[in-house]
């Protein structure tokens, strides 16, 4: 018997006995439960996509297109592009019904090494970095009314961001239902804020405020246009997050494609009309010069009510932090279930939550709060994120050829993944040419996964002595958190 197998059997033998939940019928003890409805799925996607960007600084698209009308076309095209990707993910998600989304698809299609590279970049850099940044944005806007004439103190901002992460960590460890309710209500709050802005924009349109809607100044530089799409697509990032928690979605074959279609269409409409509202009141110069476009817009139109906008932005970012934590923990869980992360992350608490995985995401995010320039890290690996999403979509035609036997409740026309892959290559390649230094650093970050894989995972080269150490730590965490491995159904 191998040391790894012996360690696993010891963990299972020493695991505390937890009674399976009795509400809503008998369930397998220690397993993640399908508690999320279609509405919960929609709010997870919408809440994950809409963060601080649309409120704070929608200047990237305008900067690279040069005109208001061209920027609006890019916002619409970015939404359509995201819908095509989401349509492809609908087939993948209903065909491979495993948490982890593109990690699970790449594992099934290209094997463990390619999947680990995707897992490493996403888990160790992109997700915790993103969560730290959104939490910092949350704290800045909560403190903004207290410090109206200056930026809030840096220490206070970081402390409040840490409190935000810790509070949502507790909620996600306590109950999946509580986490989805937080996601629901804060998604409603951010949509309410956007609808207020849109309503004000409609009022301005009725008054004939259309002088800024022209193609004057539109750039003809292909590189600049491609970079505008890069900015637009970044704002839509999150449309695939429901696939990460598909095991907890009720009737995924029916609800996953519905949730994706409704959510991405809704966000595309909201983003487009929000930008229209901004340009009814603010000139392109004012938009480019504003650090917080929504606040500037509100100050021009709402009078004293403009004070509410920073609070709406805070609600938006609070919900976004919860969405990242909810879905990222399932990616850690999926990686551990495949043996590519510590086995402790597969443990499920007595309340049917992956508490260890949630804690791992939270701790990494807290570490990144101490880094002075985490925005640069996100820029370095931004191209890697799109590259991995393109690789996941590539799984669809490859699996059609290699695994025709797989059940496919949804069958996408291959025209869509081909178009998506071609566009993804362009989106990745153009910024790489325009910013070779950042691309080089991003490649080095990706390559750090290689020695980790060889030393810890590859059977022929891994360090054997780590088995007993990880086994002891896993048993300790089981006892401290009263958790067990999920039963295989």
Automatic annotation (TrEMBL):
Family per record: Belongs to the amino acid-polyamine-organocation (APC) superfamily. L-type amino acid transporter (LAT) (TC 2.A.3.8) family.
Key words, A-Z: Cell membrane, Membrane, Transmembrane, Transmembrane helix, Transport
Transmembrane domains' residue ranges: 38-56, 68-90, 159-176, 188-205, 225-246, 258-282, 302-327, 348-371, 377-402, 414-433, 439-457
Cellular location(s): Cell membrane
Record InterPro entries: AA/rel_permease1, AminoAcid_Transporter
Bias (Basic and acidic residues): 1-17
Highest taxon of source: Eukaryota
Region called Disordered, residue ranges: 1-29
Gene Ontology CC: one annotated term: plasma membrane
The keyword Transmembrane helix appears for this protein: yes
Protein name: Large neutral amino acids transporter small subunit 1
MF-aspect GO terms: L-amino acid transmembrane transporter activity
PANTHER family the record matches: AMINO ACID TRANSPORTER, LARGE NEUTRAL AMINO ACIDS TRANSPORTER SMALL SUBUNIT 1
Membrane association type: Multi-pass membrane protein
Source lineage: Eukaryota, Metazoa, Ecdysozoa, Arthropoda, Hexapoda
Name of encoding gene: LOC106116398
């Amino acid at each position: 018997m191998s040391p790894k197998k012996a360690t696993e059997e010891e963990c299972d033998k020493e695991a505390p006995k937890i009674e399976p939940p009795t509400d809503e019928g008998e369930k397998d003890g220690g397993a993640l439960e399908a508690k999320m409805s279609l509405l919960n799925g929609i709010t997870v996607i919408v809440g994950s996509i809409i963060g601080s960007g649309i409120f704070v600084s929608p200047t990237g698209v305008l900067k690279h297109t040069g005109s208001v009308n061209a920027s609006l076309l890019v916002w619409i095209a970015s939404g359509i592009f995201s819908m095509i990707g989401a349509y492809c993910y609908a087939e993948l998600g209903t065909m491979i019904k495993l948490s982890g989304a593109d990690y699970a698809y790449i594992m099934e299609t290209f094997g463990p090494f390619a999947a680990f590279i995707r897992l490493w970049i996403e888990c160790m850099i992109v997700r915790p970095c993103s969560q730290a940044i959104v939490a910092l944005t949350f704290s800045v806007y909560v403190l903004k009314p207290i410090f109206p004439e200056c930026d809030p103190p840096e220490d206070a901002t970081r402390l409040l961001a840490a409190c935000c992460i810790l509070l949502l960590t507790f909620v996600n460890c306590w109950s999946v239902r509580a986490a989805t309710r937080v996601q629901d209500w804060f998604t409603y709050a951010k949509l309410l804020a956007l609808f207020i802005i849109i309503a004000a924009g409609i009022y301005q349109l009725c008054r004939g405020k259309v002088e800024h809607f022209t193609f004057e100044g539109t750039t003809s530089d292909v590189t600049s246009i491609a970079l505008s799409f890069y900015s637009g697509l970044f704002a839509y990032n999150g449309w695939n997050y429901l696939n990460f928690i598909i095991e907890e979605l009720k009737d995924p074959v029916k609800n996953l494609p519905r949730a994706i279609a409704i959510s991405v269409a809704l966000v595309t409409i909201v983003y487009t009309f929000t930008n229209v509202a901004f340009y009814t009141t603010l000139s392109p110069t004012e938009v480019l010069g504003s650090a917080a476009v929504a606040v500037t817009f509100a100050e021009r139109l709402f009078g004293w009510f403009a004070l509410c906008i920073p609070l709406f932005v805070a609600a938006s970012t609070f919900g976004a932090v919860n969405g990242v934590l909810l879905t990222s923990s399932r990616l850690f869980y999926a990686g551990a279930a495949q043996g590519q992360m510590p086995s402790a992350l597969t443990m499920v608490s007595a309340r049917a939550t992956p508490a260890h995985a949630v804690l791992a995401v939270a701790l990494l995010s807290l570490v990144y709060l101490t880094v002075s320039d985490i925005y640069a890290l996100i820029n370095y690996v931004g191209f890697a994120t799109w590259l991995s999403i393109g690789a996941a979509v590539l799984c669809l035609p490859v699996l059609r050829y290699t695994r025709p036997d797989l059940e496919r409740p949804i069958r996408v026309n291959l025209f869509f993944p081909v178009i998506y892959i071609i566009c993804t290559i362009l989106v990745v390649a153009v910024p790489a040419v325009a910013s070779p230094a950042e691309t080089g650093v991003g490649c080095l970050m990706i390559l750090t996964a290689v020695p980790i894989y060889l030393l810890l995972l590859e059977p022929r080269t891994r360090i054997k002595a780590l088995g007993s150490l990880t086994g002891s730590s896993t048993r300790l965490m089981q006892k401290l958190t009263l958790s067990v491995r999920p039963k295989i159904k």
